[in-house]
């Protein structure tokens, strides 16, 4: 039986792959951030993302390139991809919101919803469930929310100030924007031509109660690959998960 929300689940997506990746040097000296491989996976981050999107019903992806765009474009051309991919390159930096709007203009179905993901996110969870959550809340935009692990050990104390326990790298008590999104068809028109949507469009939608937050299910893997330490941590975690 077809799920009642199946028709409103996106089949198109944008990957924002234009960042400099300066904190991942030397890995990003000769390739853009999404082309960095996590040791032991033999797949660049973007290869993992395209496979995940395809598994979740996506058929068309627009990749927004920037830093070393030609390296990414060459890899995409040479690879056997599970989805149709179009690449776009900004002539001048448009900022995150402007870049998202520019990429969205190249989606094959502007009148249908779409996913977007930052190019440095390695994760696996049900995008179909997130799309259904988005539809049920009648949201214009839905952000995936993660609870990243705090990089330090935490201390628990009792009411008298005695230390009762040490917890190694506990999950944060706050949820953060996980860099994965579902957008309704009208969202692109609300984005700035240039500048940052997280300072303009998102706060406005939040005030209007049209912005939803989908907590990534407990046990699902999520990590932003921002530094060399993230690469080694991800390699350890994924080896432990057998991926």
TrEMBL record:
Pfam families: NTP_transferase. The lineage of its organism: Bacteria, Bacillati, Actinomycetota, Actinomycetes, Kitasatosporales. It comes from Streptomyces kebangsaanensis. Residues 13-239 form the Nucleotidyl transferase domain. InterPro entries: Mannose-1P_guanyltransferase, NTP_transferase_dom, Nucleotide-diphossugar_trans. It comes from the Bacteria. This is NDP-sugar synthase. CDD domains: NTP_transferase.
